[in-house]
Amino acid sequence: MEKERDKSESVVTVLYEAALTGDVPSMLNLLEQDQFILERCIIEKSCHFMQSPLHVAVNMGHIQFVREILRRKPQFAEVVDRLRRSSPLHIACAIKGRLEIVNILVEEKPNMCFAQDQDGRTPIHVAVVNGNVEVMEVLLKEKHQAAWERTMGGETVLHLCVKNNQLDALKSLVNKTDDPELLNFADSNGDTALHLAVAYKESEMVECLLAQNKIAKDVRNKKEKTIVDIHKETNKGSEADKKIDRLLKKYKAKPAKYGLKRQTENKWLEEQNTALMVVAASIATMAFQVGMNPPGGVWQDNNNGHEAGTSIMSYDSDGADYNVVLVSNTIGLISSLSVILLLISGLPCKRFFVFVLRITLWISVSATAATYLLAIGYVTPNVINKASLVNDAMDYSVEVWLWLVAVILLGHGVLFILKLIGHDRRQKIREFYKTHFVKPVEAVPKRVLESQITCPIV
Predict the structure, then answer these.
(1) How many domains does the chain fold into?
(2) CB neighbour burial string for 61-89, b if at least 16 within 10 angstroms, e if fewer
(3) Quick one: pLDDT at residue 456?
(4) Helix (H) or strand (E) holding 174
(5) Which residues contact residue 435 at a Cβ distance below 8 angstroms, ignoring those fewer than 6 apart?
(6) CA 347 → CA 134, 172, 176, 350, distances in Å?
(7) CA-CA distances (angstroms) from residue 99 to 65, 217, 335, 340, 400?
(8) Domain range holding 165?
């Protein structure tokens, strides 16, 4: 038994030597002696070699040997080695001058374009790392989706181009895969290929990527940094840094603070819209209730010249109060419904738009307050000295309300003026005020201070 095992291992060894030298006749002779020799090479436990004969032949560039072994055993194209779980296609893509072998392997097993080694790299990743642009283009033509595969670190082919300084491969990929998703893929750190190009000071790659209309220039990584922030941190005044600085200005790239400001602005607008919608809906509900159930109720019969269902207040001797209540309540209802309609209209919501909605709600709230004061005055009985109590309450309430509105308007007016002036002008105004109106504090001579310190207390 041991002799047969030694004999089979000896035959397999001879097969590997034939693969190493590309000796096709020797392989054919071995197959005549043992027709199962190739099967034994595939079975892992029967072979102590780390790679298959096809791996060896591909590595040595023996095209005819590769053709012959694949013709008899196509499964060899799917066998991975024990070193890095690399397929024969991985090895062919790693070595320049193996384009014909790559075509043979891809033609035999095109699905191996998606095979990953222990680092998660596919053959196209290996081709990019080693600068095999022609091989990369062949793989893209056969399996275009292979460009979207990622490594264990979440890297795409574009990331690998930047990390391995493969400018030609990057240009070819950008031209052949003009896809925004691929261009803006982020790795496990949230860095896109553009982030890495700026960090590595690859100015030509930065220019190539920024020239793409679909590239995201202001995207932030997991450290909340854009390409502008990364450039500021790594800028040392070199020629590459100066070129990158010009490119960032040319393509109007912005630091992260602008994006964070926009994000804060959107969050603020969303919160304001929610608050305005709640307030407007509440006022509309109250105004509708007052319209359907006016102060004092409605008549329940048709006696004494009135009709059932009409407002009792409208038949009062002083009909002006009812008219004022009706007008103020209608203003409150229409203005609040207008706010609701504008919020659900789908119009772009900006700060000025929110300001208009606020003004409309101020009108609505003021009309609701007026409606309440008039209504409470009507339903209050005379037995508690209606004239003095209600009139005084209304006078004080109106006065306080007007003062509150005036303070709010004054505050918004000041903020509006400060915004118009701008930060730079405000700084100049402060400096002018300090220079002309603030008296500088005279410095106390050093000798006086020393005498005060050393003078004994009497």
Answers:
(1) 4
(2) ebeebbbbbbeebeebbbbbbeeeebbbb
(3) 39
(4) helix 167-176
(5) none
(6) 51, 42, 39, 9
(7) 15, 36, 74, 67, 87
(8) 150-254
Contacts of 437 (CB under 8 A, 6+ apart): none
| 74-79 contact pairs (CB < 8 A, 24+) | 74/108, 74/109, 75/42, 76/38, 76/41, 76/42, 76/52, 77/105, 77/108, 77/109, 77/112, 78/109, 78/112, 78/115, 79/42, 79/52, 79/54, 79/55
Verify that 10 and 125 share a domain, yes or no: yes
Query: 1 and 84 share a domain?
Result: yes
CATH of the domain at 234: 1.25.40.20
d(CA 97, CA 108) in angstroms, rounded, equals 19
Is residue 385 one of the residues assigned to a domain?
Answer: no
C-alpha 179/C-alpha 194 separation (Å) is: 15
Does 406 lie in the same domain as 375? no
57 and 90, same domain (yes or no): yes
In a domain, 386, yes or no: no
Q: 102 and 2: one domain? A: yes
Task: Please list, residue by residue across 294-322, b when 16 or more beta carbons sit within 10 angstroms of its beta carbon and e when fewer do.
Answer: bbbebbeeeeeebeeeebbbbeeeeeebb
Residue 311, beta-bridge partner list: 298
The verdict on 404 and 355 lying in the same domain is no
Is 292 among the domain residues? yes
* DSSP state string for 52-66: -HHHHHHHHT-HHHH
Whose tokens are 């109060």? That residue is 321
DSSP tag of 457? P
**Together in a domain, 5 and 89:** yes
Running along the chain, 458 residues long, what does each successive block of 10 average in pLDDT?
53 83 89 78 60 90 93 89 89 93 94 92 95 93 89 92 94 86 91 94 94 88 90 89 92 76 68 85 87 79 74 68 81 88 76 80 84 74 54 69 77 74 66 63 48 41
Both 182 and 104 in one domain: the answer is no
* Euclidean distance between CA atoms 27 and 13, whole angstroms: 11
pTM, two decimal places: 0.61
Domain end call among 145, 161, 179 = 145
Q: Is residue 60 part of a domain?
A: yes
Q: What is the pLDDT of residue 262?
A: 63
Query: What pLDDT does residue 49 have?
Result: 64
Residues 6+ apart with CB under 8 A from 57: 19, 22, 65, 66, 69
Q: Which two tokens stand for residue 260?
A: 């964070």
Q: Which of 346, 379, 412 lies at the terminal end of a domain, its last residue?
A: 379
pLDDT, residue 130, reads 94
